[in-house]
């Protein structure tokens, strides 16, 4: 086959196939290529393409065009390597753009090493338990949450957050390694906001710590109790010291602020000599305040329970007491609660807490009765803590049975119980 009779040189630098309908009985196919003076006859005309020299089958001219395209690619590669040192390739073949190739350097030239990609270890190291962990807590320095973070992770780097949700986000965004947040108080009850956030975020409970609360009445140096016109603190701190303040004769206004240590900081920054704060002794030391009264909580057994949160759960064990926290719901309302509780009672698993919160996605369930009418029932999510490890078979079987009765079940964490002894705080109200 004469390949030269199949080619026609065009001024266009790309490679492609074009079709020109000359007559109803004949189609002229031209293979347009870059100029190759060594292999192409520039005197060829399109008329020769339709002659009998082309071949008697369609695959003849397809093969010819493929061979010609390979010659063009080879020629262009040689020209490009001479001009650019092989850094760039052919831009188009047969009219279709080609992918850019990554140049391969010669190993003998000792190229500079590529930058190492970041890994999880680069973003946040995984230190040993309690060794230079970054722990987020809600409040300012001097808050009880900071003391709980120091008890849970000694020598940690405590990171204050202005809101509970910010502490959750700090762990999720790798700004902190852990978060220590309160969930319940022996006098004030549950901190509902954090229970809602536990369900909204995907962090895991990896531990708990119980902190005795020791309230103090703080003021600027030199201020006497008779000069006070108001007392500020967290709402729960105000309620926990209400009777003691009345016994002290402080018939003053009581205003709620975001946190206890924040109240002490506010007095120090604004030089308020008519205002006292209920906070910890450490807050008095940090902000230069004096302690007017020590241990003003109404009950000496005032304890707050904090949970430690992490991005990954810990592996449950059976060599020490463990606690497991779950949350569940059911489409048929609260009638399932008895069946869930029986699953734990049958296996002799003790429950330490039951908390109900409104089901935000389905707050009300309507039940239609043709005789009575439409009944409206509130829907709830149930939070349960029980004394067992998920490594125990009885706990696994209990949750398997609970799952049969519920439409939603999530294990918030299985973690060691806080077994450290504590001494009740002294109180001036006795």
Description:
This protein starts with 6 loop residues before the first strand and ends in a 14-residue tail after the last strand. It is an alpha+beta fold. Strands 6, 7, 8, 9, 10 and 16 form a 6-stranded mixed sheet that branches. Strands 13-12-14-11-15 form a 5-stranded mixed sheet. The chain has a 4-stranded antiparallel sheet with strand order 18-21-17-22, with helices on one face. It contains 11 helices and 22 strands. The protein has 3 domains: 3-96, no CATH class; 134-212 and 304-416, Periplasmic binding protein-like II (D-Maltodextrin-Binding Protein, domain 2, 3-Layer(aba) Sandwich), CATH 3.40.190; 216-296, D-Maltodextrin-Binding Protein, domain 2, CATH 3.40.190.10.
Spell out the key features of this protein.
single chain; 430 residues; alpha+beta; D-Maltodextrin-Binding Protein, domain 2; 3 domains; six-stranded mixed beta sheet; five-stranded mixed beta sheet; 11 helices; 26% helix; 29% strand; disordered C terminus
């Amino acid at each position: 086959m004469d390949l030269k009779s199949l080619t026609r040189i065009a001024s266009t630098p790309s490679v492609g196939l074009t079709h020109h309908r000359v007559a109803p009985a004949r189609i002229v196919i031209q293979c347009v290529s870059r100029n190759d003076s060594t292999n192409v006859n520039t005197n060829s005309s399109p008329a020769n393409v339709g002659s009998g020299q082309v071949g008697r089958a369609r695959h003849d001219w397809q093969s010819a065009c493929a061979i010609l395209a390979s010659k063009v690619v080879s020629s262009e590669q040689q020209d490009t390597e001479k001009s650019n040192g092989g850094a760039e390739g052919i831009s188009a073949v047969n009219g279709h753009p080609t992918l850019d190739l990554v140049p391969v350097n010669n190993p003998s030239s000792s190229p500079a090493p590529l930058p190492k990609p970041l890994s999880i270890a680069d973003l946040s190291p995984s230190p040993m338990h309690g060794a230079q962990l970054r722990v987020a807590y809600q409040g300012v320095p001097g808050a009880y949450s900071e003391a709980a973070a120091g008890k849970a992770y000694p020598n940690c780097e405590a990171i204050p957050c202005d809101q509970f949700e910010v502490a959750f986000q700090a762990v999720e965004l790798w700004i902190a390694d852990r978060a220590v947040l309160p969930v319940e108080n022996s006098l004030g009850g549950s901190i509902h906001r954090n229970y809602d956030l536990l369900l909204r975020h995907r962090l895991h409970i990896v531990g708990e710590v119980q902190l005795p609360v020791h309230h103090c009445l703080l003021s600027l140096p030199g201020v006497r109790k008779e000069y006070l016109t108001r007392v500020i603190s967290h709402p729960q701190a105000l309620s926990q010291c209400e009777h003691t303040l009345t016994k002290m004769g402080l018939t003053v206004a009581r205003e709620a602020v975001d946190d206890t240590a924040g109240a002490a900081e506010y007095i120090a920054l604004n030089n308020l000599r008519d205002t006292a704060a209920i906070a910890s002794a450490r807050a008095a030391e940090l902000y230069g305040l004096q302690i007017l009264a020590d241990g003003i909580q109404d009950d000496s057994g005032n304890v707050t329970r904090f949970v430690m949160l992490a991005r990954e759960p810990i592996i449950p064990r059976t060599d020490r007491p463990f606690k497991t926290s779950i949350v569940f719901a059911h489409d048929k309302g609260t009638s399932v609660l008895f069946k869930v509780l029986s699953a734990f009672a049958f296996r002799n698993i003790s429950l330490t807490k039951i908390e109900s919160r409104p089901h935000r996605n389905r707050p009300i369930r309507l039940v239609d009765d043709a005789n009575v009418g439409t009944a409206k029932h509130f829907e709830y999510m149930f939070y349960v803590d029980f004394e067992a490890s998920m490594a125990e078979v009885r706990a696994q079987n209990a949750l398997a049975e609970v799952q049969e009765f519920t439409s939603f079940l999530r294990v918030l964490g299985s973690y060691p119980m806080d077994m450290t002894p504590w001494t009740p705080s002294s109180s001036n109200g006795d």
